[in-house]
């Protein structure tokens, strides 16, 4: 029996092949195997860290200032885009857009006055129709 995920072998018994004796040398490495690391490293490694003090503080300060500058630029671009969008939405677009702009300009008292006038006209029309139909 073998592993489900492993490679199957022709002989399932590991002791069916001849082995080595205790005094024999290990088998020679295969010539096809290659290392991923080059045999000769000619450059020296980099030193991690560095002297304590000003260089890291200056770098941090410069990075913080750059981030603030980018953030400020993005905020101003966002505000400009929002203002453009607001201006475009206020411009009337065709007949319905102009009617909507006209309704937006009305105050609450104008709207209530118009509704009151329409209600009076409807009542007057109802009373005149009732008078005509009276026998």
Write a compact overview of the structure shown:
This protein has three helices and no strands. The chain has helices at 54-90, 94-105, 108-132. The mean pLDDT is 77.
Give a written overview of the molecule.
The protein is mostly helical. The chain contains three helices and no strands. The radius of gyration is 45 Å and the shape is elongated. The N and C termini lie far apart (110 Å).
Please write out the topology:
Blueprint: H1 54-90, H2 94-105, H3 108-132
Can you tell me the overall shape?
Answer: elongated
Describe the largest sheet: none
User: Helicity level, as a percent range?
Assistant: 40-55%
Beta content: under 5%
How far the N terminus sits from the C terminus, by CA atoms, comes to 110 Å
- The helix/strand class is mainly alpha
Rg, Cα atoms, Å: 45 Å
pLDDT averaged over residues: 77
Q: What assembly state would you assign to the polypeptide chains in this entry?
A: single chain
- Which segments are poorly predicted (pLDDT under 50) over 5 or more consecutive residues? none
Along the chain, the helix and strand elements come as HHH
Alpha plus pi helix count = 3
Number of strands: 0
Features:
mainly alpha; 55% helix; 135 residues
């Amino acid at each position: 029996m073998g592993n489900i995920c492993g490679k199957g072998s022709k002989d399932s018994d590991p002791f069916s092949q001849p082995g080595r004796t205790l005094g024999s040398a290990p088998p020679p490495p295969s010539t096809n195997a290659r290392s991923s690391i080059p045999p000769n490293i000619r450059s020296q490694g980099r030193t991690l860290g560095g002297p304590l003090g000003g260089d890291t503080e200056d770098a941090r300060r410069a990075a913080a200032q750059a981030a603030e500058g980018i953030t400020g630029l993005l905020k101003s671009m966002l505000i400009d885009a929002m203002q453009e969008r607001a201006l475009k939405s206020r411009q009337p677009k065709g007949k319905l857009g102009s009617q909507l702009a006209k309704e937006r300009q009305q105050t609450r008292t104008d709207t209530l006055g118009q509704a009151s006038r329409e209600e009076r006209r409807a009542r007057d029309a109802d009373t005149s129709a009732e008078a005509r139909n009276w026998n």
